[in-house]
Design brief:
By secondary structure, the chain is mainly α. It is about 65% helix and about 5% strand. A hairpin with a 2-residue loop joins strand 2 and strand 3 (about 45-50).
Length: about 140
Amino acid sequence: MDTAIPDSREFYTITDLTREFGVSTRTIRFYEDEGLISPQRRGRTRLFRQSDRRLLSFILRGKRLGFSIAEIREIKDMYKEPPGESGQLRLLIDKVKEKRGELEQKRRDIEETLRELDQVEETSLARLAEIGVGT
């Protein structure tokens, strides 16, 4: 899920990142509080490096895909420790398979619910016709 984002600046402010990624400062501070990103501080100003920017992109993509903060942290942290990138990629593949399975189950559940709603609607319309009430 690590996505390189081309840009040559050394540092980015929180405002730069909120504009670029369309998230609030609160969201970025939350990820900082969770230890997922660690900007440098210059007084009260947060200065984000290119690596922080890539991590933010990674985190936001993980959230869009339905991963929890804990799962994102697990995948991110695995990159730093043995088995490194290969372990991270294997874990990511496993997590993607798991997430895909969950979504496929949700789709089956939704399809079943829609079928049940169709049946209820059909039965109700038929009953209305039986008792002579128009729709």
